[in-house]
Amino acid sequence: MKRLVAMLLALVCFAALMPAVAEEEAVVNVFTWETYLDEYTIAAFEEATGIKVQYANFASNEEMMIRLQANGGSEYDLVIASDYAVATLRKEGLLMALDKEQLTNWDNINPEFLGQYYDPEDAYAVPYTAGSPMIVYNPEKTDMEFHSFSDLWDPSLKDNVCLIDDARVIIGAVLKSLGYSYNTTDADQLAEAKEKLFALKDNVRVLAYDGGHTPILSGDVAVGYVFTPYAAICLQENPNLKAVFPEEGIGFGIDCMIIPANAPHPGNAHQLINFVLDAQVAAGVAEYQYYINPNAAADPLIDPDFLAMTPFHIPAELLATKEFVEDLGQDESLFQQIWDEFKLR
User: Fold this and answer.
1) What percent of the chain has pLDDT over 70?
2) pLDDT at site 329
């Protein structure tokens, strides 16, 4: 409630300041992961604008893309999805170009998150959150100090590791540890990565796409390789845990707000995007979602202790190594085949 009141006070003039747009039915249809647009932001937007948010959720980017490819996105006004999905939809002509005149808060975005491979001209996508997987470990359950992804192969960690259940993320990290690209399709490099990955099998106790913090906090495993929010939750719940970015280099991702090409209420979608770009709202989103905040104007409004947590600060030398998981088309199956075989062993 406190956060909602603060947002409403900060945005009391929001509707009046919005550029005039053609009148639309007072609804905006949002399509994203469950709770990825949180209840506080939704309530504040509805109160400030009178526009009703109708929320539908998907389980994966792939599910979302199938829906948009089937109907051109005519069911939805705003989608929040991952960078590689944005790249695919942009190439297929399924996204509407942004009207920057309606996005009066555009300049709040940190320029470091703009001009990325999936939308080099910043014509279609608005950064929402960002992150990089991390190694989180419990010093009380292992004598090791972790610095690299390759440390997870140590024999002392038998049945003591949690990994993200994702073919591209984990095989990408293995490739990175071998000095190769996350996105290679070279047969010899993938074969080498497969051999190294399979050698890790005895150490892996848990595979989890969501909730990677749970086995670490419960003590079921000594170490995990987890997404940004789960690393942050671990450190917040147990300050004795340690988190490090792998020294070989990092995977990196940005989730974005996009408007489907056939959105029925594009004006309302622009209003919601601009609302989320407000510094006060973006600060609330950051504290709720536990990802890296791409809104520079919001940083001074975020709780300093929260903002200072390690998962939100990638060292410059490692940030220079970042690689996105890019859409590989049919070659995507090369990774999935390796992963499926790994899980069945």
Assistant:
1) 94
2) 86
H helix runs in 178-227, sequence order: 187-198, 213-218
3-state DSSP assignment of residue 161 = strand
Q: How far apart are the first and last CA of the chain?
A: 49
- What pLDDT is attached to residue 72? 83
Kindly state the helix (H) or strand (E) to which residue 61 belongs, with its residue range: helix 61-71
| Residue type at position 24 | E
Give the tokens for residue 317: 């030398």
> What are phi and psi for residue 309, nearest 5 degrees?
-65, 145
CA torsion, points 302, 60, 131, 282, in degrees to nearest 10? -20
- C-alpha 185 chain-centroid distance: 24
3-class secondary structure, 147? coil
* pLDDT at residue 285, rounded to an integer: 97
Tokens, residue 148:
């690299």
Rg (CA), the chain: 21
253 exposure class (CB count in 10 Å sphere: 0-12, 13-18, 19+): buried
φ, ψ of residue 218 to 5 degrees: the values are -75, -15
Cα–Cα–Cα angle for 8, 9, 11, rounded to 5 degrees: 65
Confidence of residue 50 (pLDDT cuts 50, 70, 90): very high
Cα 176 to Cα 248: distance, rounded to the nearest angstrom: 6
Question: What pLDDT sits at residue 151?
Answer: 98
Which residues, other chains included, contact 189 with Cβ-Cβ below 8 Å and sequence gap of 6+?
175, 178, 180
CB 248 within 8 A of CB 177: yes
DSSP string, 229-268: HHHHHHHHH-TT-EEE--TT--EEEEEEEE-BTT-S-HHH
Q: Are 169 and 242 in contact (CB under 8 A)?
A: no
Calpha distance 279→105 (Å, rounded): 8
- CA atoms of 258 and 228, how far apart (whole Å): 22
